[in-house]
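User: Sequence in, structure out. Go.
Assistant: Echoing your sequence, followed by the structure tokens.
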Amino acid sequence: MSILKNKKMLIGAAALLLIACCVIGGIFLFGQDMEEKPSLDEIISDKLSAYETDLLDSLASMETNEDVASYLANWGKNKKISTSQDAYGNVIFSIKASEGQEDSLPSVIICGYDADNMGDYTEAMAIALTVAKNSLSNCPYKVIFCPEAEGEKIGAGSLSPSLFSEDPQVFYLGKSGSAKVSQVTGGYRRYELSENLEFTAPSFDKAYKIRIKNVPSEAIGSKVGAKPNAIKTIGSLLASFKSTSMLFEVSSFYGGDSANTVPSSAGITLVINSSDASKFESKLDNAIEKFMDKYSENFPEIEYTYEETDMPSKVLTRDETDNIVSLMYTALNGVYNKDDDGNVMAVTNIGKISSKNAKLKIEVAAMSCIKEFLDEISDSYQTISGLCNVKYRCVEDYPIYNGEGLGKNVAFLKKFEEAFLDFTGSSEMKVEKTVEFTPLTILSEKNENMPMLYLGVTENTKEKYAGSLVTFMDMGAEDEK
């Protein structure tokens, strides 16, 4: 065999070996790519966890709503998202439509934030951030973060109507006591009870200061009865003193910050006869023991204490004391109504009380997705106030949002259910009314034609909602304007 022929055979064998290596390597690399490419479930889980962790790690630097807005604006810019901020602190991410989806129906995702109570917002915010950054082939949509303060929807109310001029499909994300998607959200009323207080010199000679503090505060909703209301607790204590003929006089009292949040603290200064001190302290010890037995396991940070204090120079008159004790004891607080399935339909909250500047001031909030219950609560407070010689005013009144049965909402809900099924593989998406007051009532005034849904976020549903929303945005081309 010739040398030339041998060379050709060697070259041919080498070429075949090289081709084989390339093919095997290509298959290996291709297999690697196939194995390493994460699923949407994995992407959502990883990103949601990362964004929420970053939010939680950054809370120490978010002392004000301005700090939160700055964090969100910087986050959007760092992620190469078109970001703007208005004069009211609303931070707006604008995501353009993917090629070929320019004519798809636009969507808007909204969630709130409050620097004083970020624990109620981080899960919803993390969902919104996840959807803003991880859509694939999407319709045009915006993600808007709106500031709130003590439950007041200040940001949503200030949003420009131009943001909703194209009849977008609107989602509002909010923390809820139970996971649900709602076309009907609660109406809201805020009451103010007031009276000029009359004082006199003390008749007794020993003063005590009673305090409850460190109750974890949160915006009121369907879980309003899970934590103690410090104001109501002290009111019930005074009523128990009165019912057992324990004589006392009231010097001053305080509690809570807002009608819309469970009060984190409350306190009262009482004056008693020193000869009753042993009986008084025994009753207080029993009341505190029962309270702590009920709540200390779930809320170990709560403190319920009393101590002797300096004698005040004045106390409320007996008539004033009787009226306030009756009012605090009989005033509605907590869950007002549940339906046959145990769903909360109406709640109330005594959120603030004060005797500052010789004036009684009590703030109460009520929410319900049934108008008749809101009317009943209003009537009850008006009646109780009249019986206790206290002035009653309803200072805020927002109607129930009801999109149930509206043509656009029906189609919107059906499409989101499809996205939910596509992502989760489960058709068990809970759809029902919610007692929580949401900005949907306020937003509907900006454009009554746009369909809207409330997504009640819980720890167990945040990934489902994040993935379903990404899927929904990527379904945009199926429905055109």
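User: And one key feature?
Assistant: The chain is about 40% helix and 25% strand.
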